[in-house]
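Regression test case RT-17, inverse folding.

Input:
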């Protein structure tokens, strides 16, 4: 039986996602290696449960090259990628980052093969990278492929991801030594920050000015030496990756108005997204803590609200309010409305489907306009993506009925 070949370009996604531990990992790549790495990342879907085998054309990773040595360059690149080691944080049991993590070196590639006659590289990531690339529900960063393709320098790519991770806050401070480690420098620029500024920071600033994440920076000194760099950029980016959901913004604004830190909202969003509780619990916490403050039982309102939302200790009381005498007769119906058959809350499932629908619509726009596709591959990719959108819309209609 002939081997069924996977599509070469029809699986590119407009959103590239990776775990924050991978964003902050220490490694270096050449420009060609980085384009290949990005092409592989773009082929991972949010629905994937196993790492896909990627078939990537030489033309995709060398679109502007007319050099006679381009195929030899790709062959050498594949050899280097096979020996590439990433220094990654060991994650916690639920895929979370931990304080003072152990660091381990992981091979980047599980397989990489250059098929000379087809002009294609067939490759798959090492299986050890599964927790850093697949089924990510928290501690991850998204970036738009269209923005990443504007960046040429590998170090600028890495800096873009570091800033994208903190895009909600509009600033990020990174120690010079830490940044050198992340960018994969060992002996370079140890005592010559002026060279680091001229060859790394300034080119990155120039390149990112063409993306949705332009930045400025401040140099923080310890004595006379530059110790850290504070990157400053527009919170949320120039073009937000996701449109805010109105009701989410309402609860978020309510928490912010009461003094809950913006950084703490991500924990609450994760609880909602994974179905730990529904939005009604947030409003219940606000009302309950407000009554406790008025009764003199609580002094620090914001702290008490955050603790209730992160520790869930008011959740049993909230669930009891949903089973009043009038509601007990309809208990089974209420349970059906609140939770799916798999035990995930309806609200959490709805948010998951809405996120998937947004990504799919972005994919459709990307497929229709990207030069990665040609007249042969574009129609199939459009049909496949439209089918995905239809399926997600039907699922949303079912849980909403």
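Golden output:
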């Amino acid at each position: 039986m002939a081997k069924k070949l996977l599509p070469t370009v029809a699986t590119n996604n407009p959103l590239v996602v990776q775990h924050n531990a991978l964003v902050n990992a220490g490694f270096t790549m050449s420009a060609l290696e980085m384009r290949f790495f990005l092409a592989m990342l773009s082929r991972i879907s949010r629905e994937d449960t196993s790492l896909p085998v990627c078939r990537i054309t030489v033309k995709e990773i060398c679109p502007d090259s007319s050099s006679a040595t381009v195929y030899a360059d790709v062959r050498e690149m594949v050899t280097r990628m096979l020996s590439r080691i990433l220094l990654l944080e060991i994650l916690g049991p639920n895929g979370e980052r931990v304080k003072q993590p152990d660091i381990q070196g992981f091979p980047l590639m599980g397989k990489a093969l250059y098929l000379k006659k087809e002009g294609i590289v067939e490759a798959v990531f090492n299986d050890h990278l599964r927790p850093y690339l697949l089924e990510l529900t928290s501690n991850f960063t998204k970036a738009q492929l269209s923005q990443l393709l504007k960046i040429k320098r590998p170090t600028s790519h890495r800096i873009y991801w570091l800033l994208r991770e903190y895009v909600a806050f509009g600033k990020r401070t990174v120690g010079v030594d830490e940044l050198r480690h992340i960018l994969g420098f060992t002996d370079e620029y140890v005592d010559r920050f002026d060279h680091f500024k001229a060859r790394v920071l300034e080119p990155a600033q120039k390149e990112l000015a063409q993306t949705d994440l332009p930045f400025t920076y401040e140099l923080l000194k310890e004595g006379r030496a530059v110790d850290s760099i504070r990157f400053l950029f527009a919170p949320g980016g120039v073009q937000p990756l996701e449109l805010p959901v109105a009701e989410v913004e309402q609860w978020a604004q309510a928490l912010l108005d009461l003094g809950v830190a913006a950084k703490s909202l991500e924990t609450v969003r994760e609880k909602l997204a994974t179905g730990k509780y529904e939005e009604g619990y947030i409003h219940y916490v606000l009302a309950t803590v407000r009554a406790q403050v008025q009764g003199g039982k609580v002094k620090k309102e914001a702290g008490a609200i955050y603790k209730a939302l992160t520790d869930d200790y008011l959740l049993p009381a909230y669930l009891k309010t949903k089973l009043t005498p009038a509601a007990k007769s309809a208990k089974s119906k209420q349970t059906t409305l609140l939770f799916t058959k798999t035990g995930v809350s309806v609200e959490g499932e709805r948010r998951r489907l809405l996120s998937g629908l947004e990504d799919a619509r972005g994919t459709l726009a990307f497929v229709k306009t990207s030069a990665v596709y040609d007249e042969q591959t574009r129609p199939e990719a459009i049909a496949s993506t439209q089918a995905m959108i239809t399926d997600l819309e039907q699922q949303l209609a079912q849980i909403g009925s």
